[in-house]
Fold these 2 entries.
Entry 1:
Amino acid sequence: MKTKLLILVCGMTVLGACNQGAKLAYPVADKDNTVDTYFGTEVADPYRWLENDTSKATEAWVEAENKVTAAYLSKIPFRDKIKQRLTDLTNYEKIGTPSKKKGKYYFFKNDGLQNQSVMYVKETLDGEAKVLLDPNKLSDDGTVALSGISFSNNGQYLAYNISRSGSDWNEIFVIDLASGQRLDDHILWAKFGGASWHGNGFYYSAYDAPEAGKEYSNMNENHKIYYHQLGTPQSDDKLIYQNPKEPKRFYYGSVSEDERLMFIFESGAGSGNNLFIKDLTKANAPVMALTDDMEYSYAPIEVVGDKIYLITNYGAPKYRIMTATIGSPMLKDWVELIPESESVLSNASIIGGKLMLTYEKDASHHAYVYSLEGKEEHEVKLPTLGSVYFSGDKDDKETFYSFSSFTFPATIYKYDLDKNQSELYLAPKVAFNPDEYTTEQVFFASKDGTKIPMFLTYKKGLQKDGANPVFLYGYGGFNVSLNPGFSTSRLVFLENGGIYAQVTLRGGGEYGEEWHQAGTKMNKQNVFDDFIGAAEYLIQEKYTNKEKIAVNGGSNGGLLVGAVVNQRPDLFKAAVPAVGVMDMLRYHKFTIGWNWASDYGTSEDSKEMFNYLHAYSPLHNIKNDGTPYPAIMVTTADHDDRVVPAHSFKYAATLQAANTGDAPKLIRIETKAGHGAGKPISKILDESADIYSFIMYNLGMNVK
């Protein structure tokens, strides 16, 4: 690809003319004459300068856009009412699943409206809880978040990661668990991975310090694994592994609990990863490659004696359990322990000398206990369709699990492995009655006849009169599964007669690798067809009509929303693409965007791949012929260094300049926030109130 820059005009003017009907005056970025040439095809990129997220011109445009959006939202008559209800619903005690380490119990708790959850420790399960780490004290506005923790195997130390303003950049600190004091150790520019302990220190992954002013936009290259000895400066850390031949790959080290082995994961060049091993009991032991095909996933579960337990989809698209020995760890020597089944094996751990396996059946979790010899012993009976997460150590019989569903907030159970009995440990009290709602799972045929599942949650007694408002949500990519989960923000929509619809799209991991691949690269249109098919099904079955459907998705789901709105603007009334990948021709040029090529392909791969991407790229397919578009509010954040905000900036500028009818085309740009992780409650409530107000107002809902 070659780029020619003819004229650069880095200015910004405010459009004085008003849109017809809505009469919104949008801030419009000046256009320049940037043109890229792909395989002989010229593609204009007039808002290229908005990729410079730290320029004065971009800052002025962002400020002007936020003023227009804030003014629009402030005039929605029930916006304050929605925020108050969201606040009331969110204000309940939330406690995480306890982890037992060296006889003590550690857990997170949020009293209700704390910006960040606090880490506590108990000497006994029924004992007094003491604060160990309060992230709320790390910043005045709650924008410093805890992004990871790791206990040393001897129980003496806790390493914890923090993220500032939602960035993927992490800093690592260490607490002495006996005194509760933070040590002087401080790691900068860590990314994608936490601390993995060995002896009196830990391994971590980091990049070289980025160029000043480009921390959140420049491409990340040359990921490295270091070892940090406690009490020493980061400048003394020992480089353990790097691969200069592959600068765009990720490398992360994980040490076995007995500290004999370190496993190194290599990813970023396929749908899976390579796995390496290093013997930590021998000085200067080499790093050995166990696999050589990054199209498959390989992950150790744990080391027990001389046996390594692993989960993989190598030779099993829906995953299986295999074993190897420390003496013969190469892939060719692995032995199948638990074969692939009809359901997808989504998680595996060893707790109390047992294998705890979680399977996905039609996107909902089912849990089983197996012996270490591979024999099924029990199925764990779960309350309903939902999602489960287990916590426990390989040698400790005491285990807990957290269960949640669409109207079932995260509830903690204590589980007896031998008796196969669950005992309620903690049930939160939320200010709504779940008995008033129901969830059903329906199946519909997509454009090519593929059967697609969809969860529907709504108030009992709902009438199929074709007039119910719908919040349609999807993702469809990167082998990510959308399982049932709880969110207080959706309750406002449900309480006011809405239907929450969550679609199990191809591209996800709910039915294994074949399902994933069916929504990637030259199959990506399947994902959009599935989502469009979901809306058509809901209309056909008299749940709703096209004037009552709002669509939402984030990141890859933001791409989904942008694409389907371009392809079927007649089908939806409102759309909220969040932190979306909107420029499919240049996504791979920012931060870690290159890592998504396994799902998307790139515009540089071939003429055929360029043509395919260009044909659905949300930025490049906005209609400009008067075709009415739904009301759209794009959401992004200034510190998003995963999907850089330039995607949303350029998309919104193009959308506002196009002739797409009178419905509002807005962009909401959060400050001191990133891709979503670690966002403080105060910002979450404001954003949720804005999104649901925008959607419910444009669907014509009457808010009680």
Entry 2:
Amino acid sequence: MKTVKLTALFLLILLFMNFGTTQAAGAVKISYTVTFPEAQAHYADVEMNISGISQNFLDLKMPVWTPGSYLVREFSKNVESFSAAANGKEIASPKVNKNTWRINTAGLSSITVKYKVYCFEISVRTSFVDASHGFLSTTGIFIYPDKMLNTPSTIKIVPYKGWTTVSTSLEPVDGDPFTRYSPNFDILFDSPIEVGTQDVFGFDAAGVKYEVCMVGGGNYDKEKLKVDMAKIVEQETKVFGENPNKHYVFIVHNHQRGGGGLEHLSSTTLGASRDNYANPGGYRNFLGLVAHEHFHLWNVKRLRPIVLGPFDYDNENYTTDLWIAEGFTAYYQNIILRHAQITTPETYLSAVTGEMNTIDNQPGAKIQPLADASFDAWIKAYRPNENSVNTGISYYDKGAMAGLLLDLEIINATKGKHSLDDVMKYMYNTYYKEKKRGYTDQEFKKGLEKFAGKNLDDFYNNYIYGVTPLDYNKYLVYAGYKAIDEAAGTNEPSLGIVTTEATGRKFVTAVLRGSAAWADGINVNDELMTIDGTPITDMATILNGKKVDDKIVVGVLRDGLHLNLPVTLLRNDRVKYKIESFTEVTPEQMVVRKKWLGLVE
């Protein structure tokens, strides 16, 4: 009885302690003001006001990574001039680790924190400020109080001279476009902010208002973009059965050469080449990027691996399922354009063969399983080196092909009744909407098996956890197609190197595993000088007249020393696929083909 009473008393005390903490956290109010007094020098100045404080000290933290980009980027490295004040007096704010400042708040109810952030990295995941515009990638701009991620905040933007427009998915406060509200920090960190003189236009699709903000100019056709982007939105919404947003924003940064994208809950940031919209291939690539990042608003932002939310902003968040989160999205970016009738079946199949070639010509595909590629994204995918082609595989490329094979498996098994779309919709409804959590590896596998109508152990063991080469033809035959390696009958010699040329000098940038160069010691950074004593002038012709098994001498300059390396030429084993239709396609195969490729009568 005493133990029970003491336990009950302890629980009662704990309850009151938690109630007090919750009350204190609930009373905290946070506001930010962002100014750009030195925009030309790439700085954003942030003032953070926190009131309702009741603890003796407050730890303020900056995330070390941004969701969707799986690399610790150490955003706090760009913070300077950090200071804290209360009642008009500066208070101590020592840095206690790489991304945490500790403020002594004993006896204080409110504080003001000021700091500057250097913003000069052009990418979709990092902040950039100059006199023309400011892009705030919010994980690298806003510091938050530890253990208060659920606290709301307001963000006031004071624009630099001449800036007139703010684009973000954060809602305005009292109709003021320069003051925005975030219900918690997860949403703030998932809502980039563009401020400047961007060209803004919009369209309605799937019951959602879409805003497109174009930064940096370009030869884009607004009316054509509105039509084609709306088709993508409608087609992707059809997969999941609903569009969970009321307002969605595309922030597009147009550069001389640009690319890449980063998904967010109700927006995305895209990089594009400003003068490439009029080029059919360039325009198609842009729409593919739109389809990819927009598809993420379901796949990964809501339907997600269980570890990807709630986020740990201090550390890596490991998952073996990026081949689903990113790879399936890469698969859908192309098939969505086909189903929306934006691209032809031939164009789509050409994109598929490109992915097949990429995978099978990468030696690392025989080394790194797809699940491991997902898990090791934090240390490998975003930190490639000269040997990466030999040690790893992209969870985008191989994950996309895994999605394609599974799609064909399901369509064939159900005689066209179901497809991978049904798996995605089922998983979205079950885990995001009903269970309100992410899925585990096994739960997604069971979702696939539910619609495939079969055990997928072999598929997972061979292609996800193993390095068995993908058997494309086993699945393509379901749709009456076959993959043919046009290079299979060739017997051309190869050194097995990748090179670059600078000021007329030719350097080795990669040596492929198992190649002649690999076996006989040609190194990355070697400058290629001669073949059998003849100076090299054209890399395309250096092996003219040579045959497989010929012995040659390659002269290189390595670290200032001349070396002559005996090399035995090996066969070029690179594949070059094309997809062909069977001469006679059965009715069963045609059912699969129509479902897969979205063919209409």
